[in-house]
Description:
Elements: E1 25-30, E2 33-43, E3 46-49, H1 50-57, H2 59-62, H3 71-76, H4 78-93, H5 98-101, E4 105-107, E5 111-114, E6 122-125, H6 129-139, E7 156-158, E8 164-166, E9 171-172, E10 175-178, E11 187-190, E12 194-195, E13 198-204, H7 219-222, E14 223-230, E15 233-234, H8 235-241, E16 255-257, E17 262-263, E18 271-272, H9 283-286, E19 292-293, E20 295-301, E21 304-307, H10 318-326, E22 337-339, H11 354-357, E23 365-366, E24 372-373, E25 381-389, E26 395-406
Parallel strand pairs: 6-22, 8-16, 9-26
Antiparallel strand pairs: 1-2, 1-5, 2-3, 3-4, 6-7, 10-11, 12-15, 13-14, 13-22, 14-16, 14-17, 18-19, 20-21, 20-25, 23-24, 25-26
Bound molecules: calcium ion (CA).
Calcium ion binds next to loops.
Amino acid sequence: MTTPRPCDWLGVPDGHPFGLQTLPYGSFSDARHPARRRAGVAIGDRVLDLTAATERLLPGRAAEFGTGALDAFLAAGDAAWSQVRSALVRWLSEEPFRDAIEDLLVPADAVTMHLPFTVADYVDFYASEQHATNVGAIMRPGGEPLTPNWRHLPIGYHGRAGTIVVSGTPIRRPCGQARPSGADRPVYRACARLDFEAELGFVVGVPSALGEPVSAAGFAEHVFGVCLVNDWSARDIQGWESMPLGPFLGKSFGTTVSPWIVPLAALEQARIRPPSLDTDLVGYLAAAGDWGLDIDFEVRINGHVVSRPPYATMHWSPAQMLAHLTVNGASLRTGDLFASGTVSGPRPDQYGSLLELADAGRRPLNLPDGTTRGWLQDGDEVVIAASAAGPDGLRVGLGEARGQIVPALAVGP
Ligand code: CA
């Protein structure tokens, strides 16, 4: 199948990551109407006002974009998702629609992007074998790096949905308890080991009933699409608090997501077989389909590329994650977000966190400005960007998740 070309008048350069092969959804406002949020679709370097476009050209679906957030559209399910995507391809590839949509396009650099949907529950997994192995080796030196359960289930924890923020939102360095090495009691201080984690997020559209597991085969029925996630991590707070329970305040101070949600429909050519399917699994994880994804990540600190993690190496697929997180009957809500866990490939320049890249501060990274980073400093800006294999040799852009560290508030008594 050949992907239609955008109309010439749109001026989308050949091979643009936001061509018709992508069509990601977001929520924006602009200077003319700063208080009025609208749903948008990225095409090239512009944003189509989808709230207005559906009112004009697809009134049967317009109510789903009326608030400017994607919530109602996410809940509407695959028939609506397919209908809107097909309509967008027509509007943007067929000349006669020019008069109807040209005045609804605004330059992407002139809009403010907002959190695209109301985040319901947030779960973070731990699906990269390389990441789990690296972290195990750092945390349990001399021991077996992978815990005995790791190859049998996708390990995860529930995070804090209310502190998920859209790309560009500053991240304040958290304060908390930590026990300095060699000390016998903790101190309360600004985090001294601030880190990022490059991850892929999966956005749930269609809810499920309490008490009824969702099978892996139901993945594409319930999950609308993907975004990029930076799971900011305070390693010193995390290390002291997680004995024996899992991540808590070391993670919950902020999680950045990209503003554009790329629908699963754009990722058909990126699908690959995940390594876990070739292992001995219990039934609900074994019949999971090929939902591994060939997505190339890039992590930049202050503009300098520090890592290129390959998502294709992830052990567990998102269909397995979904089946696992509902296998006890836990229900899904529209707006649930589950993230993959840090994406780390086998090579040291493919690790998805500073913890791994700088070996827990022991081998700081050299940046081009002559400075080094064992951990993030105030003022550092971390950008996670990615693109996926697409049709006809094109790349499907996932955009970027950007965040800058601002100093901690003064530490009180
Ligand atoms: Ca994580």
